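Same chain as my last thread, 249 residues:
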Amino acid sequence: MPRLLLTDEFWSKLRKILLQESIYDKRDLRMTVEGMLYRMRTGCPRRDLPTAFGGWNKVYKRFNAWSAAGKWLRIFKALVVQPDLEWTFIDGTYVKAHQHSAGAARSDNQAIGKSRAGNTTKIHLAVDAYGLPIEFDITGGEVHDCKAAPKLIAKLPATQAIIADKGYDSEPLREQIASQGAQPVIPRKRNSTKGNADLDRGLYRYRHLVENAFARLKQYRAVASRFDKLKRNYASTVAMACGFLWLPM
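reply #2:
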């Protein structure tokens, strides 16, 4: 029997949300979800899923259908209950795109781009004051943090401060944060003429919380390396990982 992730307590909490998403409560629903989580954790080829989860094709078809309908993203949002929004931390991380993720027969952008590391995808993440994920976006690895930040910040709920590293040093970005009623805590680059006299260094020290969140998410191999051809499927895998961090809360 493969190692499972869902305790009875976790499953009871997750099952209610699945039913709210109009997912039919079949007898094998729990093991199907376990199969999706097993693949997220191990990164194994879908055809190599242990038979304990049922047919690999059945597990994939359900995952693909839920992904196309945006269900895993909504399940993640439903698990985000009472986040601590006193502070919000944002950052981005590169994910190596495995060769199996290339070649999707679609004309739209699948968020795989060229960067120094080759073919990569980028996760742009926002976490609350406890370091738990509350929002994320997926782009190609060539997209700079400042380019992806406006869309991510626009989705954030009201917060007192948004903290980011100097890669987000941009006056339009600071203005957007201020317009949303938050304090931008972003160090300026070395060549800036304004300097960092107004930087809240005490608050900036807690920026490691978003780095810690990436470290926790990348324990799951299908997050740390992208194997999915479709952007929506990889986003659903990231949403599963983010949601699983909220299950114990």
